[in-house]
Design brief:
By secondary structure, this protein is α/β, with parallel strands linked by helices. The protein folds into 2 domains: about 270 residues, no CATH class; about 190 residues, no CATH class. It contains 12 helices and 19 strands. The strands form 4 sheets. Strands 12-13-16-17-11-18-10-19 form an 8-stranded mixed sheet. The chain has a 6-stranded mixed sheet with strand order 2-3-1-4-5-6. Strand 14 and strand 15 form a beta hairpin. The longest helix has 18 residues. The model has no long low-confidence stretch (mean pLDDT about 95).
Length: about 500
């Protein structure tokens, strides 16, 4: 048995400046795809399961990049063509596994995944099973689902289970071939824009538990809850429930509507409470002062400047508030500023330099900070992820640990959110010895920081991934969306 392995993964923030070009993508072709074997990623999980089931994985191409602006049409056309030609060359094949996101937008095309999956279906025919994993922040369409035999969005946010969902996808392909059946899928969409909501606690956790309970019903293969990606202006933006059923479309639709109704009734529980940078720093200070001998650090996450949603990562709102508060035993990891990182690497460890730090992309994320800093440590930024995506390599570019007014500030060169403690350790920071840990991320950081934090406090100053989703203009949505418009309605 042979299964083709391919992927095109991009979370498109249509409010970002500029377009995402072909050269912005990291591309693994042919056997280089196997570099992800042994990692807790979708591709890693797919390859692992193929090996376990004695299936030959046929690597085609896997392309991905950081969340950013709309994909240039020629970039998508090139990658799509390469995927299709690779699958064509690999035939005959018994199945296709796809690593997708669900929130891809191309210049002139609002539904990247719908277009790609339809093209692959047309190429391989109706008899070849096609299954895909997705990020739960996808805006899935029925067009996507109609082209697929199984939709497996990660359940967790942080996305610690992508490899497990890929294992299920490969398992479904094998089972379909062994038992000769064709699943049916139904997508139920709600006019609901969810703020970034973790499934590790609160309403996100309880809703997921409810959904997984419903998934145990007879002949239900999978229930995927797509939180949706609200930082995009497309027709099918929203929140979605996709049910994959063994053979009964009516049952799939009925369950999807039942879950969607429950989610709609609970929508007020998902409304985020936002703190300014100053309010978050004050709340963290109160928490630190409450603790005693065996205290743990307090984590402040700057959700509104999360590169994982397309922001520049160079915002200064939270860092400025921390400096103004003169916090002690505090570290910030990290702010993206390649120029400052390069300046520090040229000067070397032990030097003192004057810098203009951050806010070089736009005015939304603050103003540059003029600082005199001491260079404590430097690193090349090539690390291995240890929490979410464990085992996967990541390159933050040149890192610099700068000290000013008793605070440690890490500066990185490549856009990324902070996933775990590795960027801190790389420059000699043991975060457990600090009172305050500040970072840029909405929720993925929780996989690496939840256990070591006394408390997590979210700062939401102005930024492209603010919880205030109502501030973004909408031109393409066909109906009112909650919470942008309180008149929004959903009826199953």
């Amino acid at each position: 048995m042979k299964i083709a392995i391919a992927g095109l993964n991009h979370e498109t923030n249509t409010y970002c400046q500029g377009q995402t070009q072909l050269e912005d993508f990291y591309v693994f072709r042919g056997n280089k795809v196997f570099k992800q074997e042994g990692t807790d990623t979708s591709i890693g999980g797919a390859i692992k399961t193929c090996r376990q089931l004695d299936i030959e994985p046929i690597p085609i191409i896997v392309a991905s990049t950081q969340p950013s602006g709309i994909i240039a049409a020629d970039a998508y056309d090139s990658l799509k063509s390469e995927i299709l030609s690779g699958i064509q060359s690999a035939q005959p094949i018994d199945g296709v596994f796809l690593d997708l996101h669900g929130a891809g937008v191309v210049d002139g095309l609002q539904d990247l995944e719908g277009d790609l999956t339809s093209a692959i279906r047309a190429l391989v025919g109706e008899a070849v099973p096609i299954c895909a994993t997705f990020d739960l922040h996808g805006n899935i369409s029925q067009q996507m689902a109609d082209a697929l035999d199984g939709v497996f969005a990660c359940h967790q946010y942080p996305h610690i289970d992508l490899h497990l969902r890929a294992e299920e996808a490969i398992g479904l392909i094998a089972n379909m071939l062994e038992e000769s059946y064709r699943p049916v899928l139904h997508v139920e969409s709600l006019p609901l824009l969810m703020p970034t909501t973790t499934t590790f606690e609160g309403q996100g956790k309880s809703m997921l538990e409810y959904i997984l309970g419903e998934e145990q019903a007879k002949d239900i293969i999978d229930v995927s809850w797509f939180h949706g990606f609200p930082y995009t202006d497309i027709e099918h933006v929203g929140t979605h429930i996709c049910v994959t059923h063994r053979n009964d479309r009516q049952q799939a639709e009925s369950l999807a509507k039942k879950i969607a109704t429950q989610l709609w009734q609970k929508r007020e529980d998902f409304r985020a409470v936002s703190l300014t940078a100053e309010e978050a720093v004050e709340a963290a200070s109160i928490e630190v002062n409450k603790q005693h001998k065996d205290k743990k650090p307090v984590v402040i996450n700057e959700t509104s400047d999360n590169c994982g949603g397309g922001t520049p990562g160079d915002g200064t709102h939270l860092l400025r508030a921390m400096l103004n508060a003169k916090l002690e035993h505090a570290c910030f990891g990290f702010i993206v500023d390649a120029d400052v990182a390069e300046q520090a690497h040229r000067a070397g460890v032990g030097a003192s330099i004057n810098i203009s730090l951050g806010s070089k992309t736009d005015d939304l994320h603050g103003e540059p900070l003029s600082l005199s800093v001491y260079i404590k440590a430097l690193h090349d930024g090539r690390l291995t992820m240890q929490a979410m995506g464990r085992g996967a390599r990541i390159n933050y570019g040149k890192l610099a640990r700068l000290q000013v007014d008793g605070m440690d500030i890490i500066v990185g060169s490549r856009r990324s959110q902070t996933f775990d403690t590795e960027p801190f350790l790389a420059v000699g920071i043991d975060v457990t010895r600090f009172d305050y840990i500040a970072l840029k991320s909405s929720n993925h950081f929780r996989a690496g920081f939840t256990e070591l934090a006394a408390k997590i406090i979210t700062a939401d100053p102005p930024g492209l991934t603010t919880h205030h989703v109502e501030i973004f203009p909408r031109q393409h949505a066909p109906e009112p969306l909650w919470p942008v418009d309180e008149s929004a309605r959903y009826e199953a």
